[in-house]
């Protein structure tokens, strides 16, 4: 796998005329075979950039194909400006080789529209959302199991509907609503005009500012992830089932660090979606010591590379396997790095647990 996409590869994606064709291109470009001889996470880390570049371009072309599909069916073209939102690892620009869908739609409603006109716009984007989700599934991106896709009314709507939705979640931050807010904090406009989503982001920032109660609920929502590291630094693999002898890299190491970086960023008024960008601003603002930021960044980049290893360990194409790595197939250096990253994740969780009291103080 090269470290970038050639103009020819980009043109091939942009000229794809079906979701099936995009699926074939995705499989070819994201073929893990060339990575097989790279056993150290550090050797794999640079490839995460091109992996996300591939995903972005295929998803953008899928949106265009969906718009064209509705036009061919006589539904028409988008009646108002809209933007396609990517959440989760896609929003953070941290997708692995195999990725599911976490997405949404936001659009502008002109003030002059009457009730019938507004309903017509809502209906169009309902159809577009369904077409996008189905098309992306055909292209190789299974829908999110938590139904965080633009076919769901919860993740699709006008600017006004999005603001109202966020306010409802913030007013009643039960576990599920807090989860939704955290997903929204990772939102990235992948297609369309970023300005469309800006009023939603502005309101989101206002809701979080000086809101100690809401911040504490967001923190408590993510600290339940258990890092699989026992006494004396012993890594604790799965002991039963299909993933016996392996470690859940996603939930055991990667997401705990992602969540802690996110919380510190939100607590300090940093609202970019990329973990590395958040970390850079934590360093720049002096919120964390430079040496500590450098340590977190080093291990986080290593983990992004390590996430590319999982498909090589299972070769079954299943999304669930994408989260697990087999300890027995890791090099000694990579195993040591993973253990150190786990210790770092535990340290970050302990630091983050104290954030609400610091915020109130």
TrEMBL record:
InterPro entries: DUF294_put_nucleoTrafse_sb-bd (IPR018821), GlnD_Uridyltrans_N (IPR005105)
Gene Ontology terms, MF aspect: [protein-PII] uridylyltransferase activity
Domain Protein-PII uridylyltransferase N-terminal as annotated: residue spans: 50-173
DUF294 domain span: 214-353
CDD domains associated with the record: NT_GlnE_GlnD_like (cd05401)
Record protein name field: CBS domain-containing protein
């Amino acid at each position: 796998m090269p470290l970038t996409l050639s103009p020819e590869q980009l043109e091939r994606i942009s000229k794809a005329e079906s979701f099936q064709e995009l699926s074939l291109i995705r499989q070819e470009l994201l073929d893990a075979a060339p990575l097989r001889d790279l056993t150290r996470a550090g050797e794999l880390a640079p490839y995460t950039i091109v992996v996300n570049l591939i995903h972005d371009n295929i998803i953008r072309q899928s949106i265009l194909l969906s718009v064209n599909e509705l036009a061919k069916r006589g539904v028409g073209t988008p009646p108002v400006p809209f933007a396609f939102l990517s959440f989760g690892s896609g929003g953070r620009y941290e997708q692995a080789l195999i990725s599911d869908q976490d997405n949404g739609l936001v659009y502008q409603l002109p003030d002059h529209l009457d009730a019938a006109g507004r309903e017509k716009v809502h209906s169009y984007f309902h159809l577009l959302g369904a077409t996008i989700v189905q098309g992306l599934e055909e292209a190789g991106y299974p829908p999110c199991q938590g139904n965080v896709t633009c076919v769901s009314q919860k993740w699709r709507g006008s600017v006004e509907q999005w603001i109202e939705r966020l306010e409802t979640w913030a007013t009643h931050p039960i576990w599920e609503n807090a989860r939704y807010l955290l997903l929204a904090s990772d939102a990235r406009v992948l297609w369309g005009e970023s300005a469309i989503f800006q009023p939603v982001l502005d309101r989101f920032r206002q809701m979080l500012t000086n809101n100690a109660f809401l911040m504490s609920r967001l923190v408590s929502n993510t600290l339940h992830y258990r890092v699989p590291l026992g006494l004396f630094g012993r890594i604790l693999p799965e002991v039963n089932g299909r993933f016996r002898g392996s470690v859940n890299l996603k939930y055991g190491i990667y997401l705990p660090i992602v969540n802690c970086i996110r919380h510190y960023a939100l607590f300090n008024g940093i609202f970019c979606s990329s973990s590395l960008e958040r970390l850079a601003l934590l360093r720049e603002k002096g919120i964390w010591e430079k040496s500590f930021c450098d340590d977190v960044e080093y291990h986080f980049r290593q983990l992004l590379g390590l996430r590319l290893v999982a498909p090589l360990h299972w070769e079954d194409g299943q999304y669930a396997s994408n989260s697990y790595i087999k300890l027995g197939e890791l090099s000694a250096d990579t195993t040591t790095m993973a253990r150190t990253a786990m210790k770092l994740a535990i340290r970050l969780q302990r630091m983050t647990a104290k954030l609400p009291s610091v915020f109130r103080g």
